Amino acid sequence: MVGTPWAAFRSGRARLATAAASYLNWIAPPLPWERVDLGLRVDGRRPIAWKSGGTVFADVLVQGEREAASSARKLRASGADVGVVRAVDVLAPARSKVYEKGARAVPLRGSAWDFGGRAQ
After folding, report:
1. Contact 90, 99 (CB under 8 A)
2. Which of 1, 2, 40, 103 has its CA 20 to 30 A from that of 14?
3. How remote is the C-alpha of 60 from its chain's centroid?
């Protein structure tokens, strides 16, 4: 929260808490997925990467479709070994997108990457 322009405002803190709760309750993958550190930043933010077996995917937290596409493109260009990028709009999860290598972006909801309907 420190460093965000709206951190001092009660409504800003409430929005941040709501967004974090949304991510953890509806979007973060279930076990056996484990959090891993990619050791990089995309547009000043750390992607949240997950690994299970040999599969790695990363979540970039975004606002809006333009930022989603840009962040996914930059993460891929970083050289990180990530098979799938989920551009997650935590304030409007239904607008979240999945970017798989060699495929068009699709909505997270209803994709194989929403983990049984948890992302709603």
Report:
1. no
2. 40
3. 4
